[in-house]
Specification:
There is one protein chain. α5 crosses α10 (about 225-240), α10 (about 225-240) crosses α11 and α16 (about 365-380) packs across α17. The strands form four sheets. The chain has a six-stranded mixed β-sheet with strand order 3-4-14-9-10-13, sandwiched between helices. The chain has a five-stranded parallel β-sheet with strand order 8-5-6-7-15, sandwiched between helices. The chain has a two-stranded antiparallel sheet with strand order 1-2. The protein has a domain at about 90-105 and about 225-430: 3-Layer(aba) Sandwich (Rossmann fold), CATH 3.40.50. The two termini are about 40 Å apart. The chain is built from 19 helices and 15 strands. The chain is of the alpha/beta class. Bound molecules: pyridoxal-5'-phosphate. Pyridoxal-5'-phosphate (PLP) binds near residues 259 and 387.
C-alpha cells in the first residue's frame, strides 16, 4: 500500500515510512491511496475469526509489502498478549445494546489497542535501520500511560513523558510512575498541562536538539494507530451479526480527536455493513455541531467528567474532510486555512447530505452522563465509565447499536461514585498501584531544565547500553 497526504505535498510512500513520518511533512495527515474492497465471501469468513487472526487479515493489505504476513502475525500476537481478556475486545449484551469492551489492555483504556501495536511496530522498524528513537510528550493523564506501556522495555526506544505535578488523578500518576523499566522517564512539571505542552513544543522546535537526539512524538495522528483500531469494528460486527451479511449495524463512539470514529469510517469504506456511526461528544461539542449544522467552529474547552474527550480542535478530522471534498488536497488546504485564520469553516448543504448518510451525532451534558451511568447500572446491572456513558446515552434511540466502551469504570472512580454511590471493582492492572514502587523526576516548568534532564539521562543510558 502507498500512502499520500491530505494536503497533496508528499510523494507516495510505503507503510514503514508513513509510520515513522507520523504527521505528513506538508502539515497534512497521511492516508492510504485506496481502501481494499471486501467481497461478501471474505466478510463472511472474517465474521468468525479470533481477534488476533482478524487483526492480521484487516491490516495485511495496508502494511504489505513493507511487512510480511509472518512479521505482522508476530507483531499482533505480541501486542495483544498484554490484554487480560482472552477475546481482547469482548462484546457484551447490555439492555437492548451491545457494549464492545475495549479496555482490557494494561492501562484500562482503549488507547492500548493502538499503542501496544505501535510500540512493537516502532521497535521492529528501528531494528531494520539500526536506529534509536526518543519519544517526548506531554500528557494530561491518559495518553501518557498508554504510550509508556506501549514502549516499556523496548531496546531502541526511550520515552520521556511530562505530566503536571499533582494535577493528574492519583491513579493516572501511579500508572505512569510505577513503570520502572530503564527506558521510561517520567517528569513531573511544577506547572499545568499547558506548561508541559509548551515545553514539548519548544523542544521540538529546537531543530538541532531534535535531530541530535532523534526526537519523536507519541502522535495521536499516526496512521498505524487508526489502522489498529479498524479491527475491533469488524470484530464487534462479527459477534453481533453472526454471519448474517444482510444485517447492518450502528456504532456509537465517544469522540474526542476523531481517531476512533475515523477507524469506523475506514471499516465502512472497506465494505463493513454499517448503518450509521453515532458521533457522541460531551459538552465540548465541535464535532457534533458539525454533523448537525455543517459548521466546524472551535470554542473554548470545558472540563468535564469525561476528560479524555475535552478537546477543541480535533486532530484527525482532516482525514474525513479529505474524502468529503472528493479527495481534493487543494480544497482541504483551503478549508483548513479558514479554520486557522477565522476559527471556522462551513460545508455546503449538498455535502452535508453525504455527511448525514454516514454520521448522526449527539452532545451529552454532565448531568446526562451521570444519569446514564446510574440508569445503566440500575436497569441493566452494568457499570459504564463516563466516556462510555456518553456513547450509551447517544445510542438511546438506536436499539441494537454497538457502543464502544473506551475506559474501564474503575479508572474514573469519582464520577462513577457520584452517579451510583460506589466505585467499580478494579481490574488486575489497576490493583495495588498505590503500594508499588515508583520513579519520577520533579522539575520546574522550564524548557531548559527539561532539556538538560533529557540530555544527561541519554548520556547515562548510552554508557549503560555500551557496557
Ligand atoms: C482518547 C479517548 C477518547 C476519545 O477518542 P478519540 O480517538 O480521540 O476520538 C474517548 N474515551 C477515552 C477513555 C479516551 O481515552
Amino acid at each position: 500500500m502507498q500512502y499520500i497526504s491530505t494536503r497533496g505535498g508528499v510523494e507516495p510512500i510505503g507503510f514503514a515510512q508513513a509510520v515513522m513520518m507520523g504527521l505528513a511533512t506538508d502539515g497534512g495527515l497521511l492516508l492510504p491511496s485506496s481502501f481494499p474492497q471486501l467481497s461478501r465471501q471474505t466478510l463472511g469468513e472474517w465474521s468468525s475469526l479470533s481477534f488476533n487472526d482478524l487483526a492480521v487479515e484487516v491490516m495485511l493489505p495496508y502494511v504489505e509489502p513493507d511487512l510480511s504476513r509472518k512479521e505482522l502475525t508476530a507483531l499482533v500476537n505480541r501486542s495483544y498478549s498484554t490484554f487480560s481478556h482472552a477475546e481482547v475486545t469482548p462484546v457484551k449484551p447490555v439492555g437492548n445494546l451491545h457494549i464492545a469492551e475495549l479496555f482490557h489492555g494494561p492501562t484500562a483504556a482503549f488507547k492500548d489497542v493502538a499503542l501496544q501495536f505501535l510500540g512493537n511496530l516502532f521497535e521492529l522498524l528501528l531494528e531494520r535501520t539500526d536506529g534509536h528513537l526518543n519519544i517526548l510528550g506531554a500528557t494530561s493523564g491518559d495518553t501518557g500511560s498508554a504510550a509508556i506501556y506501549g514502549v516499556r522495555g523496548q531496546k531502541r526506544i526511550d520515552i520521556f513523558i511530562l505530566h503536571p505535578h499533582n494535577r493528574v488523578s492519583p491513579i493516572q500518576e501511579r500508572q505512569m510512575t510505577t513503570v520502572l523499566d530503564d527506558n521510561v522517564h517520567n517528569i513531573a512539571i511544577k506547572g499545568t498541562f499547558d506548561d508541559g505542552q509548551r515545553i514539548v513544543k519548544k523542544l521540538f522546535n529546537d531543530l538541532e536538539f531534535k535531530q541530535r537526539y532523534q526526537l519523536g512524538a507519541v502522535n495521536s495522528i499516526n496512521w498505524a494507530r487508526i489502522l489498529a483500531q479498524v479491527v475491533y469494528y469488524f470484530y464487534a460486527w462479527g459477534r453481533v451479526c453472526r454471519g448474517d451479511l444482510t444485517k447492518k449495524i450502528n456504532f456509537s463512539v465517544p469522540t474526542g480527536n476523531f481517531g476512533d470514529i475515523f477507524a469506523g469510517y475506514v471499516a465502512m469504506r472497506m465494505g463493513l455493513p454499517v448503518e450509521r456511526l453515532i458521533l457522541a461528544t460531551n459538552r465540548n461539542d465541535i464535532l457534533s455541531r458539525f454533523v448537525t449544522t455543517g459548521a466546524y467552529e472551535a470554542r473554548s474547552v470545558h472540563h468535564t467528567v469525561s476528560p479524555s474527550m475535552d478537546i477543541q480542535i480535533s486532530s484527525n478530522f482532516e482525514r474525513y474532510l479529505y474524502y468529503l471534498v472528493d479527495e481534493d488536497p487543494e480544497q482541504v488546504r483551503h478549508l483548513m486555512e479558514q479554520v486557522t485564520t477565522s476559527g471556522k469553516m462551513v460545508v455546503s448543504s449538498l455535502k452535508m447530505q453525504e455527511v448525514n448518510k454516514v454520521f448522526t451525532a449527539a452532545a451529552v451534558s454532565e448531568e446526562q452522563t451521570l444519569e446514564q451511568i446510574r440508569r445503566t447500572y440500575e436497569v441493566d446491572g452494568y457499570i459504564v465509565d463516563p466516556h462510555t456513558a456518553v456513547g450509551v446515552k447517544a445510542a438511546e434511540n438506536t436499539p441494537g447499536a454497538v457502543c464502544l466502551a473506551t475506559a474501564h469504570p474503575a479508572k474514573f472512580g469519582d464520577a462513577v461514585k457520584k452517579a451510583i454511590g460506589s466505585e467499580a471493582s478494579p481490574p488486575p492492572s489497576l490493583t495495588g498501584l498505590m503500594e508499588k514502587e515508583s520513579r519520577c523526576q520533579l522539575l520546574p516548568a522550564d524548557s531548559q531544565a527539561v532539556k538538560t534532564f533529557i540530555e544527561s539521562t541519554l548520556v547515562t543510558r548510552a554508557s549503560e547500553i555500551n557496557e
